[in-house]
Amino acid sequence: METSTLLLTILTAGVCFYYFILSKLSHFERLKIPHIRPIPLLGNMVSYVFGHASLMDNLRNIYNLFPDAKYFGFYEFMRPIYVIRDPDLINTITIKNFDNFCDHLNLTNEKIEPIASKNLFGLRGDHWREMRKLLSPSFTSSKMKMMFGLMCQCAENFANFLITESGSTGKTYNMKDVLSKYANDVIATCAFGISVDSFKHPRNEFFLLGKTLNFGTWMSFVFLMNRSFPKISQFINLRMFGLKVEKFFKDIVSSTVKTRDEQRIFRPDMIQLMMDTRDKNHGPTFDIDEMTAQAFVFFLGGFDTVSTIMSFAAHEVAVNPDIQSKLREEIDDVLKMTNGKPTYEAINNMKYLDAVINETLRVYPPGFFLDRLCVKEFELPSATPDSEPVILKPGDSIWVPVFALHRDSKYFSQPEKFDPDRFLNDEVDNSVYMPFGIGPRICIGNRFALMEAKIMLFYLLWHCDVEPDIKTTNPMVLNKKSFVVMPENGFWLKLQTRKSAVT
Predict the structure, then answer these.
(1) Strands laid side by side in the 370-373 sheet
(2) SS (H, E, C) 125-175
(3) How far apart are CA 108 and CA 106, in angstroms?
(4) What is the pLDDT of residues 51-108, one digit of tens each?
(5) Mean confidence (pLDDT) of the chain
(6) Which helix (H) or strand (E) is 302 found in, with range?
(7) Tens-place pLDDT, residues 149-159
(8) Fewest CB atoms less than 10 Å from the CB: which of 210, 273, 366, 474?
């Protein structure tokens, strides 16, 4: 090819690429929807990409620029997103018209990780409905009550470790490390029927694997690449989870199924529920790959997400001694009422403990946004009085900005203040409080996570005094590289055996 022809080809390709980007990034301008002018390729992610703000603060800053709009436009790199900030419209989309917005974007690239992509979060349409219907009985009140004793045993191991290690002089811990062990033990015994004590045996396979599964810098990068540039991810085979992780969970599920079949063992957990579909003459049956995907995503949520929630709760109790004192009084009352043997009903009825966990989830929601994919054409009302309604088409993306809503002074007085009392005084508008999601796709394991966190905090304050350390960052600074709500410098706290423990 002659030089002039090559240059002309490159120039033509460059011009076409430029206009392709321009057409993508003029989406909201054409529709007259409020938005911030995007940067080519980076969209509205510039502050995040260059480390000036966390993703959640980045979105919140834009959210605050359009207080009178029902929704605004946001560019996740090249992808246009409709960010819904009006509570009534959020309700319309996620509940009333759920069938129009029933799907998520998957966590993983389905072409690269076909097994992991079969997880409940990423399943779509009727397949999601069948799997959700199948797994829901794993999380009923009766099942939670059965798991309560198992969780308490894990919490006792956790408390005994802290008492032995910290003693009366105290010791400083990164609480995420400690609470990940507790979370690991809970998920191993409740979901897989495997008894693990990560405090005595910190190098067990479950825990070592779990430590590699966190939404740090690398996983956040892969997650964003899979969402925004799926073809590039596919070309370079960019996996969210390694083959070792996939093999580990597939082996665990396969051996569990084989052992239960051979020894006629029955356990009331999600693996058993999926096994039972093989004996039915109608409805779907789920193979080992699908069982593996559900077991894996449940482990991921139970290990990393729940341990992070608990770490934030421990942090706020430590830096707010008045809250710690009030919560301990409630704990002591329960211990006296139950003769030192807390019951499922007693912990479930603790109003202040419930308020502390709920406030933790308000200030630090596990996901800073909820996403939905449009699957059937839908008309959005006009974003502002001077704009027109917009027709959403299949494939269009919707976000609900949870972090921004939870910290909006319109809905929560003094939103930056950690104040559990707001949940005791009927001050919370449930239409904008959604730490585990909203509508039919609300997190299936939310009751499990809440009970696990409550038991941990109960046992922690029963046996230990918790206070800030010189390493403690207060107020909390959010990590600017993570895709989830995480602190910049860890969860460092000082723990020591409680001076006036109730026995």
Answers:
(1) 71-76, 79-84, 397-400, 370-373
(2) HHHHHHHHHHHHHHHCHHHHHHHHHHHHHHHHHHHHHHHHHHCCCCEEEEH
(3) 5
(4) 899 999 999 999 999 999 999 999 999 899 999 999 999 999 999 999 999 999 887 8
(5) 88
(6) none
(7) 999 999 999 99
(8) 474
Q: Is the pLDDT of residue 326 over 60?
A: yes
Using CA of residue 215, residue 432, residue 175, residue 61, what is the dihedral sign?
positive
| pLDDT for the residue numbered 210 | 81
Q: Cα–Cα distance between 240 and 225 in angstroms, integer?
A: 10
Would you report the helix, strand and coil content of the chain in percent, each value rounded to 5?
A: 55, 10, 35
Q: Please report, in angstroms and rounded to a whole number, the separation of the first and last CA atoms in the chain.
A: 86
Q: Residue 495 is inside which H or E element, if any? A: strand 492-497
What's the pLDDT tens digit per position in 212-252?
A: 776 667 777 877 888 888 888 888 888 877 788 888 888 88
What single string gives the DSSP state of each residue in 72-121?
EEEEETTEEEEEE--HHHHHIIIIITGGGS-B---SS-TTT-TTGGGSTT
Question: Is 450:147 a contact under the CB 8 Å cutoff?
Answer: no
Pairing of the two strands 492-497 and 464-468: antiparallel
Look-up: residue for tokens 């104040």? 419
pLDDT of residue 7: 61
Could you give the C-alpha distances from 181 to 177, 215, 306, 358, 496, in angstroms and in order? 7, 17, 11, 23, 18
Question: What whole-number distance in Å separates Cα of residue 86 and Cα of residue 65?
Answer: 14
Listed in sequence order, the residues at least 6 apart from 466 whose beta carbon sits closer than 8 Å to its beta carbon are 314, 317, 318, 324, 460, 493, 494, 495
Do the beta carbons of residue 308 and residue 355 sit within 8 Å?
no
CA-nearest of 318, 304, 307 to 476 is 318
* Number of neighbours of residue 503 by Cβ within 10 angstroms: 5
Structure tokens at 265: 């063992």
Looking up tokens 């199948």 gives 134
**CB under 8 Å to 138, separation ≥6 — which residues?**
268, 269, 270, 273
Q: Tell whether omega for the bond before 475 is within 30 degrees of 0, i.e. cis.
A: yes
The pLDDT of residue 281 is 55
Is 13 a residue whose pLDDT tops 80?
no
**Backbone dihedral region for residue 439 (phi beyond 0: left; psi -120 to 50: alpha; all else: beta):** left
Residue with token string 């299936």: 444
Residues 6+ apart with CB under 8 A from 287: none
> What is the rounded CA–CA span in Å between residue 232 and residue 92?
35
**Range 451-463 burial, b when 16+ CB lie within 10 A, else e:** bbbbbbbbbbbbb
Indicate the range of 175-189, 371-385, 453-467, 472-486 predicted with least confidence: 472-486
Query: Does the predicted TM-score (pTM) go above 0.85?
Result: yes
Pairing of strands 397-400, 71-76: unpaired
Structure-token match 């022809």, residue found:
5
For residue 115, give both structure tokens.
């097994």
The CA distance from 334 to 331, in Å, is: 5
